[in-house]
Write a structure and sequence with these properties.
- The structure is a single chain.
- By secondary structure, this protein is α/β, with parallel strands linked by helices.
- The protein has 4 domains: about 200 residues, GAF domain (Beta-Lactamase, 2-Layer Sandwich); about 170 residues, 3-Layer(aba) Sandwich (Rossmann fold); about 80 residues, Orthogonal Bundle (Helicase, Ruva Protein, domain 3), CATH 1.10.8; about 90 residues, no CATH class.
- Helices cover about 45% and strands about 15% of the residues.
- The strands form 4 sheets. A 6-stranded antiparallel sheet has the order 2-1-6-5-3-4, sandwiched between helices. A 5-stranded parallel sheet has the order 8-9-12-7-13. The protein has a two-stranded antiparallel ribbon with strand order 10-11.
- A hairpin with a 4-residue loop joins strand 3 and strand 4.
- The radius of gyration is 29 Å and the shape is globular.
- About 5% of the residues have low confidence.
- Bound molecules: adenosine-5'-triphosphate.
């Protein structure tokens, strides 16, 4: 065992991607399981099937890898038939709750934590909140022949459970009896603990972004890591929960999933609860019959009926009233509903649900504003859309895509582009409003660029257009200056670290140059110096020297970064 453990450590030191680390770890752990089976009383009557690594910090899936026993080569993050290879929400909750290995007897529906003294859970706890209660998770295990499953927590250095490793075996002879998991539990946990720092820290292997389309036109490094999971989630019938900040692109992602599902030929319906008053939510969802309430002049189908055979995306779910929550829960559990004013009989709903939220739903549960049973019912396949600030590599790509789209709306042929400086400025800004805010700025900058455009030839969006568009963003709700500075400082530190000491602290003085350069560009020379409290420099005709000194610091920084260029040279030239 020690040999196997040190071989794992050596192997992990040499890998660069999460997928490789996960495959290596699973291979070793499956060997341990196999040895245990062959020396147990189930030798010859049990098969070790597969293992899975599943990262889920903050309660949303981040990465997923599975390895079939006997598969020698590293396999894709999610195999083609991956639809069946999801872990169970119940298993995940048990690992988070007990923070130790847990054995699951799928046929009996029991789960047993390995730690001494931890209480044993039976059917009741398993059926709590949407896991095995809906039979989906259990069916998933049964569907892939797993009778006995061991789940082990992946713990971060602070002790938080940020993922899990699960191992599956087929051993009908052991139904209701102790399987090998408990006996080898400590060893398996040791492998898990050794691998945890690598699994939790390594980036995902970049994937070919074949999935790119108008709903997900840009896939940077972070989104590339999520794509394998999204691809699997898209094909499920179970409810998908998409969380993320406002404007991050949740509804487009929901549409992307619909387009990749078996239901793509059906309707994609959106019900945004922000736009529906509480008293009308039930009616909007389920529809109504003429006379069901004052003002109901004729029959009306609701969102569920419109989405029949397709997908219903319900956005801002936390805005749902408690009454409508009860209605939705019934719908999700029974797959049936009754339009308002319909006397008897329920309609069947053949709909896949995708739920969107930018609120922290568990907080709403704790505050008593959201039903716990509904929370578990919608939290089956959770995914978090990262904010734009967590996928900054995408900013210039999105900007180019948005400019192109905007231009085509106005002029079907012809070209529009951003200058390097314009892209750099967008990349350096922060985006609390995410893609929606970026889209707004790009549109504004495009309009500004069109003002000076003669009407023919390429439209070029320059840095000054972007700067001007950004200047309108000083509205409340924008990021405070101190925070923006913190983000910039952090970027500087990270870059310095990456370059191993070649980025001198004095180069951070470039900030003054950026401030002055951008101010002159936006406000004009005199007004800029006045706004920044240096009017006297203009009066004494010292302003040119001051401007030159400061923008040279910008040039020095860009040179050190290897980017080159002199973004404010034109300001100096016009003074000469
Ligand atoms: N694929 C895309 N193509 C073009 N623009 C996009 C795309 N995705 C997002 N955007 C821009 O971002 C805006 C917000 O996108 P979306 O509505 O999907 O976000 P959301 O996370 O659902 O927002 P909210 O939580 O506020 O409902 C869009 O209106 C559009 O301006």
């Amino acid at each position: 065992m020690h040999e196997s453990l040190s071989a794992l450590v050596t192997g992990l030191r040499g890998v660069e991607h999460f997928e490789a680390a996960a495959t290596l770890t699973l291979r070793r752990m499956l060997e341990v399981a196999e040895e245990a089976v062959s020396s147990s009383l189930y030798a010859g009557r049990a098969r070790v099937l597969r293992g899975m690594v599943h990262l889920r910090p903050g309660d949303a899936y981040r990465r997923l890898v599975s390895l079939e026993r006997g598969a020698e080569r590293a396999q894709p993050a999610v195999p083609e038939e991956g639809a069946a290879l999801l872990t169970s929400a119940t298993a995940w909750r048990s690992v988070v709750r007990y923070r130790c290995a847990v054995s699951i007897d799928v046929n009996l529906g029991t789960l047993e934590p390995h730690a001494e003294g931890a209480e044993v859970e039976g059917d009741v706890a398993l059926s709590e909140g949407g896991g095995f209660s809906s039979n989906d998770s259990r069916q998933r295990f049964l569907g892939r022949q797993a009778s006995h499953v061991c789940v082990l927590p992946l713990r971060a250095p602070g002790g938080e459970v940020e993922g899990m490793i699960s191992l599956e075996a087929d051993c009908p002879a052991a139904v209701g009896r102790e399987f090998v998991w408990r006996e080898r539990g400590e060893a398996l946990q040791l492998f898990t603990d050794v691998a945890a720092p690598y699994l939790l820290a390594l980036p995902s292997r970049p994937v070919a972004a074949a999935e790119v389309d108008e709903f997900l036109p840009v896939v940077g490094a972070t989104m590339a890591g999520l794509l394998p999971i999204l691809r699997v989630f898209a094909q499920q019938e179970e409810t998908l929960l998409v969380s993320g900040a406002t404007g991050a692109g949740k509804s487009r992602l929901a549409r992307w999933c619909h387009e990749r599902s078996e239901r793509r030929r059906g309707a994609f319906e959106v019900l945004d609860l922000v736009t529906v008053p509480e008293e009308l939510q039930m009616a909007e969802l389920f529809g109504w019959k003429k006379g069901a309430f004052t003002g109901a002049m004729r029959d009306n189908v609701g969102s569920v009926a419109r989405a029949e055979g397709g997908t219903l995306f319900i956005d801002e779910i936390d805005k749902l009233s408690l009454k409508a929550q009860a209605g939705l829960l019934h719908l999700l559990e029974e797959r049936s509903y009754r339009p308002l004013g319909e006397g008897t009989g329920e309609k069947r709903a053949d709909v896949r649900f995708i739920i969107g939220t930018n609120a922290e739903l568990l907080g709403a549960v704790r505050a008593g504003r959201f039903r716990e049973d509904l929370y578990y019912r919608v939290n089956v396949l959770p995914i978090r859309m990262p904010p734009l600030d967590e996928r900054r590599d995408e900013i210039p790509l999105w900007a180019r895509y948005m400019v192109g789209r905007r231009h085509r709306e106005r002029v079907p042929s012809g070209l529009a582009r951003l200058t390097e400086g314009a892209e750099r400025l967008l990349s350096g800004s922060s985006w609390p409003g995410n893609l929606r805010q970026l889209d707004n700025i790009v549109r504004r900058a495009y309009t500004l660029a069109m003002v000076g455009h003669g009407g023919s030839g390429e439209v070029v969006m320059e840095e000054r257009h972007v700067a001007q568009a950004l200047s309108y963003e000083g509205a409340p709700g924008g990021r405070p200056l101190s925070e923006a500075l913190r983000v910039a400082a952090l970027a500087f530190v990270q870059e310095a670290q990456r370059r191993g000491g070649s980025l001198d602290l004095d180069l951070a003085d470039a900030f003054r140059g950026f401030v002055l350069g951008l101010a002159v560009r936006q406000l004009g020379r005199d007004e800029a110096f006045r706004a920044l409290g240096r009017e006297s420099l203009v009066r004494n005709r010292n302003h040119h020297k001051a401007l030159k000194r400061e923008v040279e610091k910008v040039d020095a920084l860009l040179k050190a970064l290897g980017e080159g260029g002199a973004p404010f040279a034109d300001l100096l030239a016009s003074e000469e």
